[in-house]
Write a structure and sequence with these properties.
The protein is of the alpha/beta class and about 280 residues long. The protein has a single domain (about 5-140, about 190-280), classed as Spore Coat Polysaccharide Biosynthesis Protein SpsA, Chain A (Alpha-Beta Complex). Helices cover about 35% and strands about 30% of the residues. The protein is built from ten helices and 13 strands. The strands form three sheets. A five-stranded mixed beta barrel has the order 8-11-9-10-12. Strands 2-3 form a two-stranded antiparallel sheet. The longest helix is centred in the last third of the chain and has 14 residues, at about 265-280. The chain is globular, with a radius of gyration of 19 Å. The termini are far apart.
């Protein structure tokens, strides 16, 4: 499975500002978080992307996209009907094609020579199936993420066959249904905010959107759970780290990590040491 399209969700009214924030990348260039996400996408040979946005924010997002504006399609989610509904808004854009799905409030830092997007695309192409990136996450953070129950793929310690997906489980529920042998105690495989998905996902969302009860929203994890129950669905533990910009100090953590990964590492370390020495 080799997609050429991507969908970036940024339509949560409470978090729409996060992709628009500026940050200094590893090369010392100041960019929006959105542009850093797009740097990774388009360097991985994807051709275009749709960004799902809050009504009235098109101009701000177009400005934040920088040089990539002509490769983007902005799609407004008319009402905040949930993450699944936000993904469904891109159905006409994705059509019958597979696509990469990213959340707009996360940044990613690879620990290898390949970006996290490239790593995930390589798995999808090699295994020819849907793949979600996951990261070992402490149980104190389970309330923020969809979490998978899975078994390890023979011969590859970083790949897992997904059989269960639960959105934001409690630690008690996770301990009962989502333990992965070999992970550190109290850690679970939570979504990384990055997926390679087939057109079937949009077909399922199409069916589910018509049944949203009044006053309710459509999540996305239940759709992925249906996919996992009907066809091969892998989770891949990538060689990298996600940074959730919506967490407390999330932007700060992402900024420090990016700075330390670049050519100005010594300068940054010196500044941090000086700051630690002078701050009480």
């Amino acid at each position: 499975m080799t997609p050429t399209k991507a969908v970036i969700t940024a339509a949560n009214p409470a978090e729409q500002h996060l992709p628009l924030q500026t940050i200094t990348d590893s090369n010392g260039e100041t960019k929006s978080a959105l542009q850093i996400i797009l740097d990774d996408l388009f360097s991985a040979s994807l051709e275009s992307a749709a960004v799902i946005i809050v009504p009235g924010s098109r101009d701000a997002y177009a400005a934040a996209a920088g040089p990539y504006n002509n490769r983007l399609q902005f799609i407004e989610q008319a009402a905040p009907l949930g993450y699944g509904h936000a993904v469904w808004c891109a159905r006409d854009y994705t059509g019958d094609d597979p696509f990469v799905l990213l959340v707009g409030d996360h940044l990613y830092l690879s620990n290898s020579g390949e970006s996290c997007v490239k790593q995930l695309l390589a798995v999808a192409a090699q295994r020819n199936c849907q793949v979600s990136a996951v990261q070992a996450t402490h149980e104190s953070q389970l309330h923020l993420y969809g979490t998978v129950g899975a078994s390890r793929v023979t011969g590859d310690d970083h790949l897992f066959e997904v059989h269960t997906i639960i959105e934001k489980p409690t630690p008690t529920l996770a301990e009962q249904d989502l333990i992965i042998p070999g992970l550190r105690h109290g850690n679970y495989l939570c979504f990384f905010g990055m997926h390679v998905l087939s057109p079937k996902v949009m077909q399922l969302l199409d069916q589910m959107v018509t049944d949203i009860p009044p006053g309710k929203t459509l999540g996305f994890s239940p759709t992925l759970a249906l996919v996992a129950g009907s066809e091969r669905f892998l989770a891949a533990q990538l060689d990298g780290t996600r940074f959730n910009l919506g967490e407390r100090y999330g932007l700060l953590r992402a900024q420090v990590a990016l700075a330390l990964a670049g050519p100005h590492r010594d300068e940054v370390l010196t500044s941090l040491v000086e700051l630690l020495a002078t701050t009480k």
